[in-house]
Amino acid sequence: MTKEEFLKCMQEDENYSPGWQAIDDAFEKLYPGQKPDHFGTLITSRAMFGGEEFLDGFSVYTSPKGYKHLVTYGMTVLYGDEEAFGGEWNGWGYEMTMKLREDSTESCKWAIDMMSNLARYTYKTERFFEPNQFVKGNGTSLHIGEDSMITALLIVSDTEAETQMSVYGKTEFLQLVGITESEIQAIIDDISNVKKLIELMKADGNEDLVTDMRRTKSYL
Asked: Among 79, 117, 135, 178, which is most buried by a count of CB atoms within 10 Å?
C-alpha cells in the first residue's frame, strides 16, 4: 500500500485500524469464525488521558486443544497513524499472549491484569521484552490470592500465532509461560536452561507451552 492509498483509507474510514486488524487476522487463522470474549479498557483510564492503562483491550479465545488463548491490543499501533506508516516494526513490535489451562474466561482475568502491568512497565521504562527473557516475580503465586507453584514467567514466541505484517511493520506475538520458583532459579543460574526447560515441557506433552496454575511438578 502506498502512502497516498493509506491516507485515503484514513480519510474515508474513521474506524480504519490496520494494527488491530493484523492481530485479528492472526487469531482468525487459528480460530476461524470464533468470536472471542473481548474486554476493552476504560477510555478514561488510558495513558493518553492521564491514566495508568496503556492497553486498549484484550481478547480471550477458546482453543479446541483445551485452553484459553489470551492476546493484548496496544503494544502496537492499532489505529490510523500517519507517523507510524512504513515502519519496520509496529510500535514495540509485539503483542503479548498467554495460554491458560482454564475452562472459563472469568478465571483468566487475573492474567489480564498481569499483562496490563507488564505493558505499563514497558511503556514507562522503555524496556521491551524478547523471546527467552524471563520475569522473576517475588516468589509468590502469579495469581495473587491463589496458592500456586507458578511464580515467574518465561517469554517465548507464541507457538501458534504467526507474525503479521501491516502498513506499520511487523507484529510478533510473545507468549508468557508460567514457571515455578525452582525453574526460574535454574534459569538465573544458567541461561542455557531456558532451552532445556522448553524442551522438557514439550517432551512432557505440553507442545503449546500452556500455563497450568495447578501444576505441582518442576522440570528443573
From this structure: 178
